[in-house]
Inverse folding.
């Protein structure tokens, strides 16, 4: 962080702020597991936190998993977030869910063929939506909400 002070008609840069406080967190065996530094921001000390990996896009199923973890599995959510594995976990869940849904729909199409799309497009759409809903129900209980 770089602060500036105005003197006359020109800005004079102040020294970069040095972290005000350093906290070392120890694991159960007494080994250092994390070190946090804090810097003053007005009347508060805020931790100097940065993400080490770039943001990844998370789809529908990843967001559903995130909501479930946040509300029902708070310990797992906090662990994944603090260990910087949350985004990767959500991206993996989203990718796996999409792959399994596609595979399940193909299997259901073999046992329950769809009507001809050209002659009856509404029946085809309804049938495909029904198959997708069935596949999603299986995936949600097995993958997202466990």
């Amino acid at each position: 962080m770089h602060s500036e002070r105005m003197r006359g008609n020109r800005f004079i840069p102040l020294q970069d702020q040095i972290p005000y406080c350093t906290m070392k967190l120890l694991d159960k065996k007494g080994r250092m597991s994390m070190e946090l530094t804090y810097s003053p921001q007005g009347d508060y000390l805020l931790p100097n936190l940065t993400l080490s990996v770039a943001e990844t896009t998370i789809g529908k199923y990843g967001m559903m998993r995130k909501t479930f973890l946040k509300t029902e599995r708070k310990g797992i959510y906090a662990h994944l977030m603090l260990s910087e594995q949350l985004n990767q976990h959500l991206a993996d869940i989203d990718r796996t869910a999409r792959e399994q849904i596609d595979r399940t729909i193909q299997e259901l199409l073999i046992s329950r063929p769809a009507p001809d799309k050209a002659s009856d497009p509404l029946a085809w759409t309804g049938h495909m939506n029904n198959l997708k809903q069935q596949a999603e129900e299986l995936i949600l209980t097995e993958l997202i909400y466990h």
